[in-house]
Design brief:
This protein has 17 helices and 8 strands. By secondary structure, the chain is α/β, with parallel strands linked by helices. The chain starts with 8 loop residues before the first helix and ends in a 7-residue tail after the last helix.
Length: about 400
């Protein structure tokens, strides 16, 4: 990781918050005048743009002009985003043509197929696929035959990485960065400990071999809401995920919304959809319908209060400090709070976490990720340590030079 000198933590956090808020406001409705940022804040804005996956959107929607290095950054990100999307489209076509079993192209792949965004506007770091449990072995063979190797395996999905990939990673979007494939056999999120499973109904029962769409637009929205809820719970949401809700939501009818918010595996109305919808409504006023009373009532009161008090920076990688207990507002009662603290000290998937750290460039160079959990906990006595991913993005932004200047 490039160890470019950074200002003190309070200055860095202020820059991350101000640039995050301003860029989110520009996506809600482009403002006419460029912000009066200093050199460091423009670099922080680059980091925020990449962390939140909004560089392509900003390139096509901003109406003001920033300094030359900012304009070059957006132009380069837009071009690389288009090239990368072409690679994704090619890979999706290969998967569709070779698959002898039904597969569901999840989230970004589905939005891409529906044409919700213009060419290159929405980034995709990987391709997510859902296979029926009986087809997982065949899907594994399909993916490995396409030049991929199984990497990190978790309870409900396996991440595959291309056999041929560069050791280095370019900052932000770049056609040379690898495209991973994640194979799922279930769609569920721990919120924060109890899993909410929405697998049933995502894939139509009569799907044929190849890549298939969701059973309905409502099913896609349901998955986007749960995935965003999971990232809010871990304080790692991205602005592009909230924008997805608004962009797809514009296409849904009242009956679609009712279907998207039906009970999941816990038997309750979709209470977990309240936090993502509340935050999206604050960021993009008048772009989403009112949340049904039954869904609001099913959401725990403490979580509803947290929704009103926490902003995008607090719940994303724009927050510099590592949260001591992410997901605390989602816990139901003292028993879950204690369970959350115990899991923080003694994570169940320590071996899996170690593999993830080794494979993610934003984590691999951080000494924090190699500390034992008890030492991490003690570190909070001196204040919240900074997030490795956030520091990585800021350092990368400070070191960034547009290809046109080479």
């Amino acid at each position: 990781m490039n160890e470019t000198a950074l200002p003190e933590a309070a200055v860095l956090q202020a820059a991350l918050r101000s640039t995050t808020d301003r860029l989110a406001a520009d996506l809600a409705g482009p403002l006419p005048m460029a912000p009066a940022w200093d050199e460091f804040e423009w670099r922080a804005a680059m980091a925020v743009s990449v962390m939140h996956g909004i560089s392509g959107l900003l390139a096509s929607r901003l109406v003001w002009t920033g300094p030359p290095h900012w304009q070059a950054f957006l132009a380069e990100q837009a071009e690389q985003g288009r090239r990368r999307e072409a690679r994704v489209q090619e890979l999706l076509a290969r998967l569709h043509g070779a698959a002898g079993m039904p597969l569901l192209g999840l989230k970004g792949a589905a939005l891409l197929t529906l044409g919700v965004y213009a060419h290159g506007e929405r980034p995709m770091s990987d391709i997510d696929l859902l296979a029926r449990p009986s087809d997982v072995h065949a899907a594994d063979q399909l993916i490995t035959a396409m030049g991929y190797a199984a990497g990190v395996a978790r309870h409900r999905h396996v991440a595959y990485e291309p056999l041929q990939q560069n050791a280095d990673r370019a900052f932000g979007e770049h056609e040379g960065n690898p495209i991973k494939i994640e194979l799922h056999q279930a769609i569920a999120e721990p919120l924060p400990l109890r899993k909410i499973d929405i697998t049933a109904g995502l894939m139509a029962p009569d799907t044929g071999p190849g890549l298939n769409p969701y059973s309905s637009p409502a099913a896609l929205m349901r998955h986007l809401l749960l995935h965003t809820a999971g990232n809010l719970c871990s304080c790692s949401v991205r602005l592009i995920q909230l924008h997805d809700l608004v962009a797809l939501g514009a296409r849904l009818s009242a009956s679609d919304w009712a279907q998207a918010l039906t009970p999941a595996s816990d038997g309750h109305p979709a209470w977990w959809a309240v936090p993502p919808l509340r935050l999206a409504q604050r960021l993009f006023p008048d772009r989403l319908p009112a949340i049904p009373p039954a869904v609001l009532a099913a959401c725990p009161p403490r979580l509803r209060r947290a929704c009103a008090n926490q902003g995008l920076t607090d719940l994303s990688l724009s927050r510099l400090g590592i949260p001591l207990l992410p997901g605390l507002a989602w816990a139901r009662g003292p028993a879950e709070i204690l369970g959350l603290a115990w899991q923080r000290l003694y994570p169940e998937e320590r071996a899996v976490t170690a593999q993830i750290v080794q494979r993610q460039h934003s984590l691999a160079g951080s000494s924090w990720t190699r500390r034992p959990p008890w030492l991490k906990a003690l570190s909070f006595l001196l204040g919240a340590p900074p997030r490795a991913q956030t520091l990585y993005s800021v350092h990368s932004a400070l070191a960034y030079r547009p290809a046109s200047s080479a």
